[in-house]
Amino acid sequence: MSGLMATAQSDARALLTTDPELTSPRGQAARALLWLMEQDKAIHLISVG
How far apart, in whole angstroms, are the C-alpha atoms of residue 34 and residue 4? Predict the structure, then answer.
């Protein structure tokens, strides 16, 4: 699993280097994924208590 995490971290850094505002199609996809992850966290917190 650590190899996958290292790859993801390297890819995220490369994306932020080439598209710091996340405005490219790939950047917008990353932005949407981050938004979805935050929604998932909020749903979990609501369901816990």
Answer: 18
Tokens (6 digits) for 42: 């909020």
Looking at the 3D structure of the chain, how many domains does it have?
1
* Contact (CB, 8 A) for 19 and 27: yes
- pLDDT tens digits for range 11-40: 999 999 999 999 999 999 999 999 998 988
Whole-model pTM? 0.69
Specify the 3-state DSSP secondary structure of 49: coil
Q: Which helix (H) or strand (E) holds 21?
A: none
Domain that holds residue 14: 2-48
